[in-house]
Amino acid sequence: MTTASSTAVPTLIGSVQRALRLLEAVGTHRDGAPAKQLAREAGLPLPTAYHLLRTLTHEGYLRRENGVFLFGAAAERLVDDGALQNRRSRMTQSLGRWRDIIGAPVYCAVYRDGEIELVAVADTPAAPAVEEWAAFGETGHAHAIGQCLLSQLDEQAREDHLDRHPVRPLTRYSVRDRPALLERLRSIERTEPVVERQEYALGTVCAAIPIAAGFTAAAMAISVPLDQEERLLPAVERLRGEVASLLRSFVFSISI
């Protein structure tokens, strides 16, 4: 006789469980893995694994390239739709804590698919972020975040970016041309802050620091009004000193 305190046993679909184990196995291999290896890691007979892998590939959750299986577009959409908002929310919360401590807007950006992308910004009405009056992704040569990201690229990627987004002065303080920018980028020390004074927006100074995030070029930055410039370097040094703790939430955005 069933009592009120008894816990019902859910009905489980074995084929779904096996498919999920295969997806988990694929997820542990950045460059993909062959069917035999995935079957072994998922604890499945090879014929069963082959059948499930073909089905998952047909449905777009996996793709096969050069004999190995990788995540397909359908699986990537699941990550994008379900986890993107949560990761960015956690990212913004983390930046917000340091915005409050430092007393200045905090920015986070990555270089992805050949473009500069601002991932998150934390500011307040009393300390607003710089207004994007010229397209941020197209004017990396003129702001600290862009220069910091471009300095992390190899020569070919850097030249390709500048072919698509030519250098043009935005203010009288901006770098004047491509050779001057390239010379500046080559002189940037990998671990040092990149400082920009009124090159993107008059009356504003910014500093950016590179973030070590695997193979992704990433940066964080702060900005202050020109008449508070003496705060800039101490504030960015404080931010840099906390990078290790910030990375714990920052890495969520890098995998987007």
TrEMBL record:
Q: Which Pfam families match?
A: HTH_IclR (PF09339), IclR_C (PF01614)
Ranges for domain IclR-ED: 67-256
| Domain HTH iclR-type, chain residue ranges per copy | 13-73
Q: Which InterPro entries match?
A: HTH_MetabolicPath_Reg, Tscrpt_reg_IclR_C, Tscrpt_reg_IclR_N
UniProt keyword annotation of Iron-sulfur present: no
Query: What keywords would UniProt list here?
Result: DNA-binding
PANTHER family, sorted? HELIX-TURN-HELIX TRANSCRIPTIONAL REGULATOR, ICLR FAMILY, HTH-TYPE TRANSCRIPTIONAL REPRESSOR ALLR
The protein here is known as Helix-turn-helix domain-containing protein
Q: Which source organism? A: Streptomyces poriferorum
